[in-house]
């Protein structure tokens, strides 16, 4: 059986991507960042559902599912603001910037995608949806210096406001892991069409 690694996500606007590139460049200049592995801004997406390895024949059914979810929904805006880490500042593994959308449309979109994926036999996510954009990961071998860096970064960037973007489509991406990092290929796009 042929499989591929996939996820469902929102692409970032060029303006937000540029703002994230500038933020990562600032973080790279901070003392103590040697324990970090920053991601390339060009590869950052707002992931709504990580699918993992899926059978290739499921692809067409996922296209149809995304079309069903998006057809009845209108585009909406989200603000990229604030910094944080998972699981916590005492033992950080992932550093991120957050997303705000006070009307709840992003969470509703994610829940609808989750429900469609479950009907296709894909496993349900066991953690609550926490919208974020990953900036980097703390290296496994990093010690106290990395923890100190993350705490400084959180203090400095806690209120960072990178701007607003419109969510007007969602995409099914294929992710191929290469020695140089993951390569992403868009397999299907579904526009938020209601009200257009």
Describe the structure.
The chain is α+β, with helices and mostly antiparallel strands and 196 residues long. It has one domain (3-191): Alpha-Beta Complex (Cyclic Phosphodiesterase, Chain: A), CATH 3.90.1140.10. The protein has helices at residues 14-28, 59-71, 105-119, 144-157, and strands at 3-10, 36-38, 46-55, 76-86, 94-100, 132-138, 161-167, 169-178, 181-191. The longest helix is centred in the N-terminal third of the chain and has 15 residues, at 14-28.
Write a brief structural summary.
With 196 residues, the protein is α+β, with helices and mostly antiparallel strands.
Beta-strand portion reads: 35-45%
Helix and strand sequence: EHEEHEEHEHEEE
Question: How many helical elements?
Answer: 4
Number of strands: 9
**General shape:** globular
Overall SS class: alpha+beta
Q: What name is given to the CATH topology? A: Cyclic Phosphodiesterase, Chain: A
Distance between the termini: 40 Å
Helix content: 25-40%
- Provide the low-confidence segments as ranges: none
**Mean pLDDT metric:** 91
Query: In CATH's first tier, which class applies?
Result: Alpha Beta
What is the architecture at the second tier of CATH?
Answer: Alpha-Beta Complex
The number of domains is 1
In CATH, the homologous superfamily goes by the name Cyclic phosphodiesterase
Radius of gyration: 17 Å
Largest sheet, in brief, is: 5 strands, antiparallel
Q: Strand arrangement, largest sheet?
A: 2-6-5-4-7
């Amino acid at each position: 059986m042929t499989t591929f690694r996939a996820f469902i996500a929102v692409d970032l606007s060029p303006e937000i991507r540029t703002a994230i590139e500038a933020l990562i460049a600032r973080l790279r200049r901070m003392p103590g960042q040697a324990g970090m592995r920053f991601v390339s801004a060009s590869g950052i997406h707002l992931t709504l559902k990580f699918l993992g390895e899926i059978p290739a024949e499921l692809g067409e059914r996922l296209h149809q599912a995304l079309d069903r979810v998006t057809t009845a929904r209108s585009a909406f805006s989200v603000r990229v603001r604030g910094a944080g880490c998972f699981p916590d500042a005492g033992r950080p593994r992932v550093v991120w910037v957050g997303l705000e959308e006070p009307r709840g449309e992003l969470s509703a979109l994610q829940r609808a995608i989750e429900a469609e994926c479950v009907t296709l036999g894909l496993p349900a996510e066991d953690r609550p949806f926490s919208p974020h954009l990953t900036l980097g990961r703390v290296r496994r071998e990093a010690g106290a210096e990395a923890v100190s860096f993350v705490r400084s970064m959180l203090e400095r960037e806690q209120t960072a406001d990178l701007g607003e973007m419109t969510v007007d489509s969602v995409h099914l991406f294929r992710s191929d892991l290469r020695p140089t990092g993951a390569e992403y290929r868009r397999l299907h796009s579904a526009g938020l069409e209601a009200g257009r």
